[in-house]
Amino acid sequence: MAGPNIQNGILKYCAACKGQILGLTHYTDGQQIFHKSCLVCINCLDQLGDEEFYDVDGAHFCVTCYQEMYGLPCCKCDTAITSRTCYSVLGMNYHYNCLLCKNCKRVIELEPVYLYQKTFLCKKCIMGSKASPQAQESRTS
């Protein structure tokens, strides 16, 4: 059986259940320590031990639950943007794969984006068309 976890002469206790941490295996949110089974998503109760998670005022969320509750919806597909990559064009947010040129179907990355007749065009396509005088340019961010 594992012995108590002692660091600098102080016994360690789980922030969730207040039980003593035995052995060396424990998880931390950067401020407090937890048993593996106690560090869970507050919404779905999945264990977070080895997974990336978000801390919102001491409440822990798995990535999926955080994005569902706090994430931005994509203006094209209307699902939550769950990755850290989000493109914002003219105040609207898009997944990386949703910001496509209407003409060539390429992903419009960090380049000017042109809005023409409510569709996006990349710089190459807008320069090759007769639409450029009426198009509105924006940059991805």
TrEMBL record:
Q: List the SUPFAM superfamilies hit by this protein, alphabetically.
A: Glucocorticoid receptor-like (DNA-binding domain)
Q: Does the keyword Zinc apply?
A: yes
A single GO molecular function term of this UniProt record: metal ion binding
CDD domains documented for this protein = LIM
SMART domains xref list: LIM
Quick check: keyword DNA-binding in the entry?
no
Domain LIM zinc-binding intervals: 12-72
Coiled-coil regions listed: none
Instruction: List, alphabetically, the PROSITE patterns matched.
Output: LIM_DOMAIN_1 (PS00478), LIM_DOMAIN_2 (PS50023)
Keyword line: LIM domain, Metal-binding, Repeat, Zinc
The record ties this protein, via PANTHER family, to:
FOUR AND A HALF LIM DOMAINS PROTEIN, GH01042P-RELATED
**The protein's name:** LIM zinc-binding domain-containing protein
Recorded source organism is: Trichuris suis
High-level lineage: Eukaryota, Metazoa, Ecdysozoa, Nematoda, Enoplea
